[in-house]
């Protein structure tokens, strides 16, 4: 589709069989076009879903969550961050705070259409982004962090190698390639610094106590250890932690367990046990382990 045709309408049907699914193009604060999908159930109450590192709006678990919410008659909007999926811009390695500003542009656009933002949900890096957003803007009451990383200094060696700091100081960048040697993305010293200076601990402490936060993590996550989920529980005032037994980072075999857990929290399901407060003294009873049915 040409740019001219795209600009004629910000809302486009993406599938004639899914006539309530609309492709939406939103301009961010840098003039870049962010592409998303609105699954409109007729309700103006809208949940926004954010993807993770080098992912997109169309991958799991974003799409599964949107579909489960749709069946519950809840409108969702999932979109691609700058440089990801269909959105314009250059992919950046760090970019946590910049992606929080992308989210800001999305929420402002939706509110401009008289939609009420009832929750923001993020997976992996997107989990960090929704927490950073909540800490800065304090205009959302429900936040869900799925598989987010608390210690952002971790996980870097696995992608860049043990000598990454020395190499990036010498060359100014590191080119990341896949196992076949194909170029995937470039990590600049600036983008690495952005990640290392993003303070998750400070953000967690800054989230208002009236904002309900759910962290969901898989016990078998090999990308971000489940131990990091407990760190969020220590510092966010109004927090609930659910650990899904046997689930990996993307909840590959636990998609519907994840989605139903998130939906229950969103709907303030009284049958879901566990205190929402997770101060250090009551952390143990705030954790809700969920045993796999698979």
UniProtKB/TrEMBL annotation:
<dbReference type="InterPro" id="IPR029058">
    <property type="entry name" value="AB_hydrolase_fold"/>
</dbReference>
<feature type="region of interest" description="Disordered">
    <location>
        <begin position="1"/>
        <end position="22"/>
    </location>
</feature>
<dbReference type="InterPro" id="IPR022742">
    <property type="entry name" value="Hydrolase_4"/>
</dbReference>
<feature type="domain" description="Serine aminopeptidase S33">
    <location>
        <begin position="45"/>
        <end position="154"/>
    </location>
</feature>
<dbReference type="Pfam" id="PF12146">
    <property type="entry name" value="Hydrolase_4"/>
</dbReference>
<protein>
    <recommendedName>
        <fullName>Serine aminopeptidase S33 domain-containing protein</fullName>
    </recommendedName>
</protein>
């Amino acid at each position: 589709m040409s740019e001219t045709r795209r600009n004629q309408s910000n809302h486009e049907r993406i599938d004639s069989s899914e006539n309530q699914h609309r492709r939406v193009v939103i301009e961010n604060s840098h003039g870049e076009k962010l592409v998303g999908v609105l699954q409109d159930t007729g309700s103006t109450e809208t949940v926004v879903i954010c993807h993770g590192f080098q992912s997109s709006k169309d991958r799991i678990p974003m799409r599964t969550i949107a579909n489960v919410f749709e069946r519950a008659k809840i409108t969702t909007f999932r979109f691609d961050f700058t440089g990801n999926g269909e959105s314009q811009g250059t992919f950046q390695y760090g970019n946590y705070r910049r992606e929080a500003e992308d989210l800001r542009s999305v929420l402002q656009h939706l509110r401009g259409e008289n939609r009420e933002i009832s929750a923001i949900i993020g997976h992996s890096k997107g989990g960090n982004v929704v927490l950073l957003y909540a800490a800065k803007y304090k205009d959302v009451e429900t936040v869900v962090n799925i598989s987010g990383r608390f210690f952002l200094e971790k996980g870097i060696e696995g992608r860049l190698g043990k000598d990454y700091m020395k190499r990036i100081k010498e060359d100014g960048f590191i080119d990341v390639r896949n196992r076949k040697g194909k170029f995937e993305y470039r990590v600049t010293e600036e983008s690495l610094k952005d990640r290392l200076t993003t303070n998750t601990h400070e953000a967690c402490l800054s989230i208002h106590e009236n904002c309900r936060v759910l962290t969901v993590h898989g016990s078998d996550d090999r990308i971000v250890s489940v131990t990091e989920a407990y760190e969020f529980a220590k510092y966010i005032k109004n927090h609930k932690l659910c650990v899904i037994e046997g689930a990996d980072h993307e909840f590959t075999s636990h998609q519907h367990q994840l989605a139903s857990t998130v939906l229950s929290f969103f709907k303030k399901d009284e049958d879901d046990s566990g205190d929402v407060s997770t101060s250090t003294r009551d952390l143990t009873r705030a954790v809700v382990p969920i045993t796999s049915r698979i």
